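[stage:ingest] chain + small molecule (adenosine-5'-triphosphate)
[stage:ingest] validated
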Amino acid sequence: MNKQKDSLSTDSKESETQHKRHFIQEVIEKDLAEGKNDGRVHTRFPPEPNGYLHIGHAKSICLNFGLAEQYGGKCNLRFDDTNPSKEEIEYVQEIKKDIRWLGFDWGDHEFFASDYFDQLFDLAVRLIKDGKAYVCDLTGNEIREYRGTLKEPGKDSPYRNRTVEENLDLFNRMKSGEFPDGSRVLRAKIDMASPNLNMRDPVMYRMLKAHHHRTGDKWCIYPMYDFTHGQSDSIEGITHSICTLEFEDHRPLYNWYIEQLGIFPSKQYEFARLNLAYVMTSKRKLLQLVQEGHVEGWDDPRMPTLSGMRRRGYTPESICALCEKVGVGKTNSVVEFQLLEHFLREDLNKKALRVMAVLNPLRVVITNYPEDQVEELEAVNNPEDESAGTRSVPFSKVIYIERDDFMEDPPKKFFRLGPGREVRLRYAYFLTCNEVIKNEATGEIEELHCTIDPASRGGNSPDGRKVKGTIHWVSADQALDAEVRLYEQLFTNPNPSKVKEGETFLDYLNTDSMKKVTAKVEPSLRDATPEVPYQFERNAYYRVDSCDSSPDRLVFNRTVTLRDSWAKISKKK
Ligand code: ATP
Ligand code: MG
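[stage:predict] done
[stage:export] tokens:
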């Protein structure tokens, strides 16, 4: 009954590609064969510390750290911290925790783009001296207007032909904070008629008198992403700089800076980002959910952040398995959420300790059982793992079963309890229902009066007679109360970033994404900790909540149901 029937059909094409090398592995193997970069493979994972990592980042982490592992190379962790107004030290710490949790280690290869601010400044000065960068006084709006469109070329800035001396003087004065924020920028002098908008004299530096979490008040100019990223890659000797497809159009600029400066030629490769149906993977929007209180924080168990998923009970193994399965390609697509749940169930099935918990209790009085007797019965902790051993579960005259496991007028195929019927109480006894006690006013069933067959102790048939159903139960006096949080998807739209005109992604928030119930759970759970996954038998996988649970108040998060009921429901809609 507890066996998992969760075989998600995987077509042969998909499993074929799993064994083939993906295009980045092909590039690396070709480079190695040609003896490029002295046979080195050096990647990096470059998060901006402006939010928590989400499931999409996991793909980039698995890819970058995975390639380094596979080819005996290195992977740097580099914080891309060039925007002090949005970045915080809290994010740096949480990002590190999440990467370690996924199972990767960057050793002492921890860097910050801000470590290179002096070098980046010097590189910018070199471009000015070579006549390849200039200080521009146009406002932000004017720069946008002058840039032109995809159909029309841009116009040269009136400041484009300043002399090297003037540019050097102005850039140094920008650095010393002589001008107000936003009044001047440094731009690369490339080509205002380029078909690629990124090449139309992109901004390299902007003025911003903001406190930086690492460099303090030293700087009031900050380098832009494009000028920082490739140069940081080059400074670190990164051989394969892997990013998502939206940066494809930035590659000519990435290469332009490196070529003009004649620095180490890191190469950029783009792959398709991971998108999951019903999941929001934009840090900016996740931040909005947190700031506006739609969720309880970055680590709310409904969030697609790694910290939220960890708290909910997802395992790093299941997330890495998903990333592996999805593969590395060049076309953006949306992956079904069920695929992640499939890997999660597979993993939890191996690891979770089985326990009994009743979410919607119905009282059962066993009329032929002695009043004060409490028996300890042996229960298996994990049928998938003998080494998990057994525990004892108390049994007594009054127990709780699930309300759903009883029907007063059951249809043919209902194999659980009904008047005059016999079922097996898991690990305990055969139980027969003799009487249904109802509330006289409401007609609601209040309790059942049943008898057990004393000869069936342990749940074994005394005479070969069979029962069709086995149900779980807890002993009323010994059971603990636990708050159980049942989660559903946070969004009702499979692609919550794509909304119709006049709507925002918030219009698709699922207002029913969390339900709390008070369950009766077996007493062994008194010592449950968030480190251990549990399966409430016949129900779902659960995890102790790492924030709200305490010895006086047990709180469980439902990680994932045993069967994919959500997928079935969504298909029906
Ligand atoms: P977001 O789109 O959520 O704001 P981001 O790209 O701005 O993400 P970064 O901190 O810059 O966030 O991301 C670090 C790395 O993770 C980058 O190399 C980025 O390409 C990669 N990454 C971000 N989102 C995804 C995703 N959904 N799938 C794969 N890689 C991703
Ligand atoms: Mg980014």
